[in-house]
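[agent] plan:
  1. take the single chain provided in the ticket
  2. run structure prediction with default settings
  3. attach C-alpha cells to the ticket
  4. add a short note for the reviewer (M.T.)
[agent] executing step 1
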Amino acid sequence: MSGLEIRYLGFNTDAPTVKSKAVRQAMAQVVNRSELVSKVYGSQAEPLYSLVPASVTGHSNSFFNKYGDPSVTKARALLNQANITTPVKLTLHYTTDHYGPATKEEFEVLRDQLNSSGLFDVDIKGTPWDTFRPAEKKGEYDVYGMGWFPDFPDADNFLAPFLDKDNTLGSPYDNSRIRSTLIPESRREADRLSAAGSLTDIQDIVAADVPVLPLWQGKQYVAARGDITGTAYALNSASTLQLWELGRGVSG
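[agent] step 2 finished; step 3 output follows
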C-alpha cells in the first residue's frame, strides 16, 4: 500500500539563484519523477505530485495538473519569459546519513536530469545531518533535499508544517491566502472530505509558486506465508501495524 513518507526539494525563496519563481517552475517542469523512482527506489516508492500523499484524504495531483509530463521546451519558455540567463547555476544539498545511502544516488539522478536539459548547471553536495539541518534552517542552502513522516495521517500535517508561520523549514515563503484563510478554513472542517476545496487550493498555490518540489512517496509491504490471514488489514491508513488482525488459517 502507499505509505506516508515523502521526499521533496525545499527552496530558500529569498536566495538570488532561486528567488525568481520561474527558476523553481522550470525545475518542476524538468524533473522526471518516474525516472527518478525507477532508477533509485524501484518498487519501494512512487512519484508524488503534491506535498500530500496520494493515500491521504484531500490529496490533489497539483504539480502534474500544472506541469504535465517533463518538458525541456516548456521549461525553457518559462525561463525566457522571465529573462533568466541560462544555464542557471545551482547546488543541490542533501544529507548523507539521515535518509539512507540511496539519497546520494537520488541526487545524482536529479543533477543529471537538470543538467541534461541544458538549462541548469547543477552540482550536488552531501553533508552529515548534524551540520545539514542547522544550516538549512539558517537559510544557508538555496536548494536542499528533505523528507517527512507525519505525526498523524491528515492533509494538514503535510501542508501547515511547511507553509505556516514559524514553519519547520524556516522557509521565508509567505502566502497570505494560505496562512490567513485556507489553512484555518480547512481546519474548521471535521469531515476531511468537506475540507477538500481548501486543501486543493493550497496544493494548487504550492504548484504555482513552488516553494517546495515534491518528488516521491514511500510504499509499504506486508510479507506473509500462505497460511497467515488478515494481511490485507495489517496496515491501517496511519501506517500503523495492526498485529491483532493477523491469524493462522489453512495453507493454500
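[agent] step 4 note for reviewer: The domain at 2-221 is CATH 3.10.105.10 (Dipeptide-binding Protein; domain 3).
[agent] ticket updated
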